[in-house]
Amino acid sequence: MDKMLILCNGEPPSEKLFYKYRAKTDYFIAADGGGNIARQFSDTPDVVIGDLDSFEDRDTDNFRIIHRPGQESNDLEKALSLAQQKGGSHIYILGATGLRLDHTLKNLSVLKQFNRQFEDLFLIDNFGKSQILPHSFSKELPIGTLVSLFPLSGKVTNITTEGLKYSLKDETLENGVRDGSSNTVVGTPITITHKKGDLLFFEAF
């Protein structure tokens, strides 16, 4: 089980987006109320995990339920811990943004917490795909693609970009001071390097 889908209980993905990433994966984890969203898509997760304060269908004939009531971790953390135990390396997370802002911020923190545990860890919604970048990153993207850079750790230093309209050359992004939102791809592949800090990259669909 290499590629896994995690579906959370935030803003539901579109049906098209759900099935796009469902088709890419061979193991499907619903984080608590994400199981309700899966049912809306007439799909069945391999497992539902969480404190189960939101999940409504307790019929376990077709899938496994793991009840982990502890409040020291949220449902996404519990799902990612399970994905790690199952040997997942490429993880696609849907439904982790939108609705309550505090839940979205928490899930971004969880993304940072687990980033080094997987080869790829993506947080995806109806607007785009986000990931925390390695210190050296390159990707082919269509000209005109909207991208953003955010210093998830508060401050990211020595950032250099190529292929973006608003380029950075050994510069710093810092929350409350300067961020890199709403940039545009003008050359491909784009390259982004940085030295210190956690740099969140958003790629719009």
From TrEMBL:
Superkingdom per UniProt: Bacteria
A Pfam family per the record: TPK_catalytic
SMART domains referenced in this protein's UniProt entry, alphabetically: TPK_B1_binding (SM00983)
Domain Thiamin pyrophosphokinase thiamin-binding: 128-200
InterPro entries, per the entry: Thi_PPkinase (IPR006282), Thiamin_PyroPKinase_B1-bd (IPR007373), TPK (IPR053149), TPK_B1-bd_sf (IPR036371), TPK_catalytic (IPR007371), TPK_catalytic_sf (IPR036759)
Keywords: ATP-binding, Kinase, Nucleotide-binding, Transferase
MF GO annotations: thiamine diphosphokinase activity
PANTHER family from the UniProt entry: THIAMINE PYROPHOSPHOKINASE
NCBIfam families cross-referenced by the UniProt entry: thi_PPkinase
Protein name: Thiamine diphosphokinase
Organism from which the protein derives: Fodinibius salicampi
